[in-house]
Amino acid sequence: MSYTTLVSGAVVAERLHDPEWRVFDCRHQLTDPDAGAQAYAAGHLPGAFFLHLDRDLSGPTNGRNGRHPLPDPLRLADKLGAAGVGAATQVVAYDDAGGMLASRLWWLLRWLGHDRVAVLDGGIDRWLAEDRPVTTEWPRSEANVLAVALRDWVVDSEAVLGNLHDNRLCLVDARSPDRFRGENETLDLVGGHIPGARNHFFRDNLGADGCFLPAADLRRRFLALLAGRAPDEVVMSCGSGVSACHNLLAMEIAGLHGGRLYAGSWSEWCSDPARPMIRREA
Fold first, then answer.
1. Which value, to the nearest 10 degrees, does the dihedral of the CA atoms of residues 275, 280, 281, 282 take?
2. Which of 170, 211, 238, 270 is catalytic?
3. Angstrom distance (rounded) from CA 249 to CA 207
4. Where does the pLDDT of residue 281 fall: very low under 50, low under 70, confident under 90, or very high at 90 and above?
5. E strand or H helix at 151, and its extent?
6. 115-139 pLDDT tens trace
């Protein structure tokens, strides 16, 4: 059986030593880029490899392409292959942020053409709450080959700009409501949102226990948000193309397929003052 959205700690615990499974720790803090690696070194799931959001799951920034541009797909495939990921490998990603960072790896792997990837529901917090083991040992693996069959799931700023006139896309912003309104912006130089965007905070995909809501609940919420727009018209954005993947995962869990990603998101959009923006009025 392959897992393509979520997987429980109980299932992962049974497969920790399965050679066809690979687990990746994606912990990261935007305000402290070394925090994830430090947390990994202090204790991680047995056999888990570490991937850094900036160095592994993103490409170089140039001041105009957002804070977390997409990585080079072949380079990412090589990194994953070095950890033993191949065509038959079941990948599991986890974090300590409700799946916000793990969903980035989930989306990236599917973008590369690899569907056998899931997010550990509840992350390492639930894993620890269930009294499951962690280790400080660094894993080893024989290298594998991960072929790339890139999918056309990325929307660029020109398409988003054109959508201001033709409205063919349904843009959804995953940031918190205050940041969407242009308030309390601490990560980007400009606060606000892209004209026409709708807001669905990624944390609203989670229950009080930190796990994803049931599929039926997610489906009901997204159908209300889309208000008749088809799932394959949806383009998810956020601040830098990370938490937007959480919404794409939630839509997949809900059975609403076909959404795409504006990878540059607000941090790319607001880097050009000529682009239209909805900003908070003083």
1. -120
2. 238
3. 15
4. low
5. none
6. 999 999 999 999 999 999 999 999 9
